[in-house]
Amino acid sequence: MHGDSMRWPLLGVLIGLMSVLGACGHQGLFGSSTDEDPGINAYPTNYKTDILGGMRAYLNDPTGIRAAGISEPMLKSVANSTRYVVCVQFNGKLPGNSSASDRQLAAVFLAGHFDHFVEKAQEPCAGVTYTPFPELEKMPRY
Predict the structure, then answer these.
(1) Could you tell me if residue 42 is inside a domain?
(2) Cα(4)–Cα(19) distance, integer angstroms
């Protein structure tokens, strides 16, 4: 009987430990974020400015960009995750390409800030509505 009385407190400690570990699993180990983390998909309030900054690093030559358009941020599936995506279309030169062509990019946002571009953006950008994006057409050469 003495052995049974020792099991109950130990069982309580194990249940408490499992509860704590289960709560940690919600955010992932060491505080990493998951799609369930509400901050990971924060609305990108400065998306145009963020995209222009990303384009400065992305484009070799920002001169001669024409017919630029941009969509509103929308939650889309990208690489098996749900993220805010902003679609950008324009006619201009891209890295490694000496001639201008019509391009469509998807700007992916993480925690409300620009993260990266997806070049093959037909799927996430299918059927979106574009509005003029003159800021992209006026980017200065650096």
Answers:
(1) no
(2) 23
Indicate whether 24 and 94 sit together in one domain. Answer: no
**pLDDT tens digit string along 35-85?**
567 689 999 999 999 999 999 888 877 777 899 999 999 999 988 899 999
83 lies in some domain: yes
Is the distance from CB of 114 to CB of 107 less than 8 angstroms?
Answer: yes
DSSP-derived 3-state class of residue 56: helix
Q: How many structural domains does the chain have?
A: 2
pTM of the model: 0.70
Q: How many residues are listed for the chain in this entry?
A: 142
Range of the domain at 88: 47-137
Q: How far is CA 99 from CA 63, 65, 94, 137, in A?
A: 12, 12, 8, 17
Q: How many helical (H) and strand (E) elements, i.e. helices and strands, does the chain have? A: 3, 6
